Amino acid sequence: MRTVSAKDITNAVRDMCIRANRNQPDDVKRRMADCAAGEDSATAKEVFKQLLENIDLAAETGLALCQDCGLAVFFVEVGQDARVEGDLNEAINEGVRRGYQEGFLRKSACDPFTRKNTGDNTPAVVHYDIVPGDKLRIGFMAKGGGAENMSRVTMLAPAEGWEGVKKFVLTRVAESRSNPCPPIIIGIGIGGTFEHSAKLAKKALLRKLDDVHPDPDLAAKEAELLGLVNALGIGPMGLGGKTTALGLKMLVSPCHIASLPLAVNIQCHSSRHEEVEL
Ligand code: SF4
Description:
Blueprint: E1 2-5, H1 6-22, H2 26-38, H3 42-61, E2 71-79, E3 82-85, H4 88-102, E4 125-131, E5 136-143, H5 145-148, E6 152-156, H6 161-176, E7 184-192, H7 194-204, H8 216-230, E8 245-255, E9 260-267, E10 273-277
Parallel strand pairs: 1-3, 2-4, 7-8
Antiparallel strand pairs: 2-5, 5-10, 6-9, 7-9
Helix pairs in contact: 1-4, 2-3
Iron/sulfur cluster (SF4) binds at residues 66, 68, 70, 144-147, 180-181, 268, 270.
């Protein structure tokens, strides 16, 4: 049994919240630069130029990439042979408190009815999985309101199949237009149950943009649907262009014979996420 201290978890979470809010992941930045080069429209090129300048400025100055520093979402894989000394959930929340305070990040968590801000961006939304091993793997994502609000879950009839999935995703992106600050990244969860599909869709956003799905059929489906999304022409910040989405990632799980759960979780171009292993 390996012991991981609550203090180490808090420090790691604090650092992740700050770093991720200031630094665009390399794969996303590279994809943005590539897509900018492939745009024909002067407006789309100019939007990309400004977005890329913003990324450089955030890294240089230590200012947040976006004023909306998001709700703090975590995917935590706990090795079954790891023992946490202290309260794991509280350790994560304390890291969020410190990170958002010390990093001068906007706190966006509030009561859903009174709208009173909780003051420290907690509680974080934390998903746990027990996995083999003695390590703790913590994935963090800052989820802004604009992109999260455009996300949806639906229960398709099984007969709708892949055609139904494509139709729902394309309609969702088309209706979202500029609201999620495109170019977006689309996480898709298919299968499981109602809530499991939503979790899969969000977790899919942690995949690197340049990874290729290990299942060739799903890799082909991701490429097909990304092509269809980009053919919508919404473009960077909704001002037209070839790049509506930088990437589209799917996670798939078996489901009930009577169901076809489908979740679409949209992330904006400011795709702030990071993973650490303790
Ligand atoms: S959708 Fe993303 S880029 Fe747009 S305001 Fe929200 S956090 Fe910022």
